[in-house]
Amino acid sequence: VLGLENEAEAFYEALLDVAGERSGVISQKSVMFWRRAAERPLDVAPEDEDGEGGRRGLEWLAGGDADGDGDWE
Question: Are 47 and 66 in contact (CB under 8 A)?
Fold first, then answer.
C-alpha cells in the first residue's frame, strides 16, 4: 500500500513471529485480518471470507466499522 510493500511485509512477518512465540498476545482473529490485508487487494474488506463478495472499494473503506454493526469487531 502506498509504496510500502516491503515495510508491510516486514510488519506482517513480525506479527506472525510474535503470535507464534507468545500465545494469546495477538488473537487469531487479528492474525487472520492482517493475513488478508497482506494478501488481498486494498479494495476487498478484511471480513469478506472468500475475497469475492461482500463490500468492496469505497463502500467499506469509507464506511467505519468492518461489518457495519457499530462495534468495530
Answer: yes
